[in-house]
Amino acid sequence: MVAATYGNVEVLKLILMHSEADVNLICGSDKSNALHCAASGGSVNAVDVVNLLLSTGADPNCANANGLCPIDVIVVPPKLQSMRVILGSSWKQLFFCRLLSR
């Protein structure tokens, strides 16, 4: 969760290499997962972290305790507003790919 929040792609890759790592693990009283952390952390590496998590099976439709999905909690620094569009596109692409593969 910390690596996702702060956009540390290399640490996240190391964690995900272990077969017992659960990319959809829910944590804390707000019931957030790593995608929630990546989307709300505001890191300049958020796009890379989100894409990595999605490519390893993270569920973009997982709602937290407040009923919010990761796409609902996207926070980006004021100078990087284009990241909101890119992050949203990543989720939309994954959603449509999963629909087509059924």
From TrEMBL:
Q: Which UniProt keywords apply?
A: ANK repeat, Metal-binding, Zinc, Zinc-finger
Q: Which organism is it from?
A: Acer negundo (Box elder)
Keyword Zinc-finger assigned to the entry: answer is: yes
The protein's matches in Gene3D superfamilies, at most eight in alphabetical order, are given as: Ankyrin repeat-containing domain (1.25.40.20)
UniProt keyword Manganese, yes or no: no
SMART domains hit by this protein: ANK
Q: Where are the ANK repeats?
A: 30-65
The superkingdom of the source organism is: Eukaryota
A GO MF label: zinc ion binding
Name recorded for this polypeptide: Uncharacterized protein
- Database matches in Pfam families: Ank_2
